[in-house]
Design a protein that fits this description.
Blueprint (H helix, E strand, L loop, with lengths): L1 H18 L9 H18 L1 H30 L5 H27 L2 H28 L1 H5 L5 H36 L4 H32 L2 H29 L15 H16 L5 H14 L2 H21 L4 H9 L9 H9 L4 H29 L1 H24 L15 H4 L28 E3 L4 E3 L12 H31 L5 H25 L6 H27 L7
Helix pairs in contact: 1-2, 3-4, 3-7, 3-8, 3-9, 4-7, 4-12, 4-19, 5-7, 5-9, 7-19, 8-9, 8-15, 8-18, 12-19, 13-19, 13-20, 15-16, 15-18, 16-18, 16-20
Length: about 575
Amino acid sequence: MLKICRTYLFLLSGFKQCIILQPNAHTSNKSLKTLYLIGSALIYLKGPKFLIYVSGALSMWGDRMWHFAISVFLIELYGHNLLLTGIFGLVVAGSVLLLGALIGDWVDRNPRNKVAHASLFIQNISVTICSIVLMLVFSYKKWIEEIWDGWLTVVCYTVVIVLADVANLASTALTIAIQRDWIVVITGYNRGHLAGMNATMRRIDQVTNILAPLAVGQVMTLASNVVGCGFILGWNLVSLIVEFIFLSRVYRIVPALSVKPPAMEHQSYLKKKRERKRSQGNKRFKPMKYNESTSLHLQEISRIPVCLHRLRGLLSTCWEGWRAYYRQPVFLAGLGLAFLYTTVLGFDCITTGYAYTQGISGSLLSILMGVSAVAGLLGTVLFTKLRKACGLVNTGVISSVLHLVCLMLCLCSVFAPGSPMDLSILNMGNASDVGGMTGGHQKHGYPLRGGSNQPLLPDRSSIHWTNNTVLFENAPAGTEPESYVSIILLFLGVITARVGLWSFDLTVTQLLQETICESERGVVNGVQSSMNYLMDLLHFIMVISVPQPQHFGILVIISILFIFTGHTMYFLYARKVKRKPQTPS
C-alpha cells in the first residue's frame, strides 16, 4: 500500500512537469486546452483539498460501517436483546458529554499533525482490536460462556464496549481537528472556499451514511458475523495507512498547518485562566518568612495524592472549557444547533419503529431513506447558493424558516386522519394499558402485531438495523390504517425538512469556524459536541417516558418545541450580529 501511494504521487508529479513544458509552434489550440485541463485535474488531485476529501471519505465510511456493525454485534451476542446496545449508547454519549472539553483542549495544546496522527491511530487500532475480540467471541462463544461461570463473557462484553467507546472518542477528536480546524487553514480563511469544503464534506458524509451500512450489512448477511468483523478489520488497517499518508502529505504542502498562533498574541481563555490561578496562588502564599511558608506549602502538597491533583486539573479544564464556550459570540447559534438534536423527526430507529406500527413496509422505508438522503444533498447545494446571494447569517435565518415551515406538516400529521394519537391512555384509570396490554383506546381500530400498545421498537429478531435506520424483514400483515394521511404528512415533513436542516447545520458550522479564535477552536468545538450528545440523550429519555405509538404525537409536539427554541436562539444571535458592522463575506 505504501508503494502504491508513493507511485501515485510520483506519477502525478511527473505528469505535472510534462504538462508545464512549453508546446511547440504546431500545437493546436485544442491540444493546448486539453493539456491545460489535464494539468489542472492532476494538480487538483495532488492538492490538499482532494487529499482531505479522500481521507475524510475513508474515515467516514469506516465510522459508518463500524457504528452499524457494533450495534448488530452487541444484539447478536446478547441473544437479540437491547441491553448491551443501550449500555453502549449510554457509555458513548456520556463519555463525549464528560470529556468533550478535555478532548478539545488536547487538540488546542498539541501540534496539528500529532493530534491527527494520534487520533487516527487510536481510532483504527481500537476498532481493529475490538474486531479481533468479537471474532473470537463469535467463534468460541459456547466455550467462553463456560469459563469462570460465565464471567469471561462479561469481561469480553466490557472490553468490546470500552474499545468501541475509545474509538468514538478518537473519532470525535479527529473530526474536531480536521473538519473544524484544518480545512479553515487549508482554505486560507477564505469564506467562499470554506463554504465549498464544508458542503463537500457534508455530501460525502450523507452518501457514506447510506452506502456504508448497506455494504457491510450485505457482507454480514451473505457470509457471517465473523467475516463481517474481518472485513471491518481489514478496512481499518488499509484506511489507517492511506489516511496517514494523505494527512501527512497535506501537512507538508500547507505550511500554515505547522504554525499555531503565538501564545503571547493569541492566548486562549483556558491558558489565561491557568496563569491567573497560578498568580493568585503565588500571592496567597507570599510569606513573611520565606522558608517557613515554603516548607508548609510543600507539606500541604505532599499530603494530597498526585491523582487528586490531576483530577482537580481535569475538572478545572472542563469547567473552563464550558465557560469558554459560553463566552463565545456564536454561543446562541451553537446552542440552538444542539437543541435540534432533541427530536424524533428524523430517520432514526424511533421514527421508523413508529412507521412499522402504522403498517409501513421495510422496502418503502428504505426508499424513503434514500429520498431523505437526496433532500440532505439538496440542502448542501442550497447552503452554497444562499451564502453567495444573502450572506452567511441570513442563510441561517432562511434555512431556519424553511426547516420550521416543513415541520408544520409533521405537526398536522398528529391530528390528521389515521393518526393513532390518544391521550386518554395517560389517565390513571387506564394505567393498566400502559404496561403493554391490549386495549381499545386507538383512534382507528386496525390491529397491530403484538397488541395495540406495543412499544415503538418491536422485537429485534424481525428487523435489520442500519446506522440510524431500522429496516424490517416483513411488513406487518393486516395492519392497514383507516387512512394514510397522517403517516404521509409525517414523512413528507421529515424529508422536506432535511433541506433546511442541513443548510442550517452548515451555516452554524461555518459560523463556529469563522468566529472562534484559532487557539480555542478545539475546546469550543469539543463542548459543542458534548452539548449535541446531551440533547440527543434527552430525546431518548422522552421516548422511554412515553414509548407507546399512541403517544408518538406528544413526542412530535415536544420535538417541534425544542426545534423552535433552537431556531429562536439563532434568530436572537442573528439580530445581535446585524446590529454590528459586518465584514464582506
